[in-house]
Amino acid sequence: TALASLAEGSLAVLTSTGDLTVADVVNGSVRSETVDARVGRGAGLALLSDGTTLLVAGERGVAFIATGGGGLLRQAVPYPAGQSALSATRNGAWVSAEALNLARVSQTTPIRYWRCVPDGGCESAEALPWLQNTLTYPDVWSNTWVRMRIIPFTDFQVFDAATSQPLSPMIQLAIPDGFGGASVVPADRSWIALSRRHVDSSVVPPGVVQVNALPSGERIATIESGPGVGFAMPPSEAVVLAFSSESGESFLIDTATWTSSPSPLGAGAVVAAAYSQDGRWLVTSDTAGDLVVRDPATFAELRRMSSEAGSSRGGFAFSDDGRYLVSTHDGKGRLWEVESGELLGQPIGGMPTVSPAAFPGPVAGFVTVDAAEKHLQIWRFDPSTWLDIACRAAGRNLTLTEWEQYGPRDSEYRATCAQWPVEA
Questions:
Q1: String of b and e for 401-421 (b: at least 16 CB within 10 Å)?
Q2: How far apart are CA 244 and CA 253, in angstroms?
Q3: Rounded Cα–Cα distance for residues 220 and 317 (Å)
Q4: How far apart, in whole angstroms, are the C-alpha atoms of residue 363 and residue 356?
Q5: Cα(240)–Cα(228) distance, rounded to whole angstroms?
């Protein structure tokens, strides 16, 4: 359900059942026993600013759990009657709402939000000052995060993720009291593009992309858009591919002129997108659930990689060198060779979550969690780690059969583990 990066390369994993486990991302070992957070179905997870406490949000309440000392449950706080979890925040608060399913809410009636603290109960977020009335959204590649006011949705501010220092003044939202918040920031942090949509779906246009200069916060452009817009940007940062995660429609934004133009991709072609870090590949996911490798300059389809059940729900990410792509459609993890479009190995179950969408830092691969068995596995991209992982898992050299299945292609069988001789 949620992941949070901890100190020294460890990762906190919250399952849908509300169980919490801390694992070592480097070697895959479990650093703590599984802890029942006692919050029912898990919903949100955040490492507090003290660096030693995890805030877990669930359907029944929230729990504060120590990252050290065996996962000691420090405190559990129930929700007010009729409330449920929306998210957890680093400032030790959490946010709850009357309704999480927006389809059940009147299109013109704003949802009421509460900000809750361990000892002070819950207050209407509308009556609280700026720092206590916000949600945060991270951006991995620019190492920034955006803090947005909850009620009323009127403004936001950009911060440095490492220092927590502001990179902008308070910036007014183009659509106050709307929805959305997907953003993109270039590596030099010279601007931010943020998508917003109206609550009332009958408003034309249904959404906008606002662009503000950093650090001044000055509005550069306001571009009309559809609802639910997300972004993908190549390393050149000359253009932004904007797409609707709902309809799959897309358009292009020129970052020199801040003008939009139609994308050559048809309706339904892009519900998610990512560029490789070297700029060689663009991969899109369509409404049918297929992953499509494209030429990043022309958007021409180069090859298509299909999932089994045709689900468009899932994430994907490139390895650092752009050779591999991991996807998590259909509740399964798959590793693809981008050049050939070949599926490497068999799909991996366990409802995987892919980085970098799930947790900050370099692309590590993906994490699978079996809630029933309380079993966690970390699957890494870096081939240089695979041999050591295989040797530690098997406790011996690979057999000939295992070598043929998992070993290097077109290579003769040999001892795989330096710690055991050839005869082993």
A1: eebeeebeeeeeeeebbeeee
A2: 14
A3: 30
A4: 5
A5: 15
Query: What does each C-alpha distance from 118 to 43, 76, 78, 85, 372 come to in angstroms?
Result: 18, 8, 10, 14, 30
Beta bridge partners of 367: 353, 378
For residue 93, give both structure tokens: 């608060």
CA distances from 298 to 31, 184, 387 (A): 47, 22, 38
- CA–CA separation, 327 and 379 (whole Å): 12
Contacts of 176 (CB under 8 A, 6+ apart): 152, 153, 154
Spell out the residues 6+ positions from residue 126 whose beta carbon is closer than 8 angstroms to its own. Answer: 112, 113, 133, 151, 152
| Chain centre distance of CA 76 | 26
Which pLDDT value is given to residue 261? 95
Summarize pLDDT for 329-388 with one digit per residue, the tens.
776 778 888 998 888 877 776 555 554 443 334 445 556 655 555 555 666 666 677 777
Please count the CA atoms within 13 angstroms of the CA of 372 that sit on its side-chain side. Answer: 3
Which tokens in the block code for residue 312?
Answer: 């468009």
